[in-house]
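Entry 14. Structure prediction run on the chain below.
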Amino acid sequence: MKKRIMAILMVTALVMCMFAACSSQSSGKTATDTSAATTAASAAETTKAADGTTSASSGSTDTIKIGLACPLTGTSASYGELMVDGAKIAINEINAAGGVKGQQLELVSMDDKNDPSEAALVAQRFCDRDDITAVISHGGSTCTLAACPIYEAAKMPNMSPASNNPEITQHGYEYYVRLGVRDDRCSPQVVAMLVNNLKLKKIGIIYANNDYGRGNLDAGVAAAKTLGAEVVAEQTYNPGLEKDFSTIIAKLQKAGCEGVAVYMDHEDAGLYFQQAHALGFDVPSVGQSSLTYKQLIDLAGVDALQNLYICVTFNPYSDRTTVTNFMDKFLAVRPGEVPSEPCAGCYDIVQIFAKALREGATKDNLAQWIKNTTDAKSTTFSSENVATLAENLTWDKNGDIKPLGVSLLKVDEKGNFVNYNESVDITGLNLGLN
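Output returned:
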């Protein structure tokens, strides 16, 4: 009798599942409302599908769908949330102005969890969909390296906002473009700040044990040698796992480091700086845009960050019209915060995709159009409506952006990121910044 009852229950459950699936197919999707940051100008509806896809659109069925792969859950969720905000600000702005050739833009976000295995799955999901025109592809180099071959095989145009490991573009991908400045062009400016500006000759390097960290380590060590400085200590850690940095700090102290190049994410760096300050290791440190998150200040404390300089290619305090326009809309969504470089990068990428499509590019040649390698008329991406990073943006055939200089930020005594009115002295480096 018990077996018969169990069989009946199983058949009933199967019928209910089949009914639910049929209902889903008849409606086109299965979705539930989720909360997401929206601007006052946005009438967008945000939904999250059963596969983890998050979609924000104007409600029109005649849309151009742009994919966004980023961490939406886990320890890197704050990183991904800002990427979504940047993309949505651009989409709202474009849609309010009439869209692209009468079509509205729609953002489709998928959670890569900042994990390369998950990033590969997300890339495949995007490539399996015929309705995705292009993808904003991942925030971290390790995820992008895992996903790029999948996008390339599917001929899916994809552009990353902050995947800066030089290896990515050395593969000759035809459908990949990146907005971020390569590590071997940005990391040397971190070292130049320590050596040329701060006049330090014995430096240490702490770096994440991933593609981002190792790429910066290699570039930083080479820059130090070029500038006549000595790297007296190289210390690595496992991102997201390390909680006690006291041993690393002790080794940096023992080596006689006068200053430290910091290639870390904001949460790990928050713990490192808090512990370094507690142990009396407050030497000048220089990091990158991966540190410009409020969580860094919350974790480390203001006092621990007074000797920190942050090199950024996106300067939120620039008085250029494109930047002030973006900042006004960002602050309407996140009052009192500073947008991360990937956040601003996602805004730019949406604008770049839209401008290229508006001027004649198609899904088939979008990446080539941006890189100016197509026979068709190509686009100049000027500061009129894109380019929060610089006045004009151009790329080489590999998808690398023209080299850019950095700006400097600091943390003031009130716990705010502020502009530091000094330029990095790159004397002795050949970075092609002219």
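The longest strand covers residues 63-70.
Filed with the rest of this week's runs.
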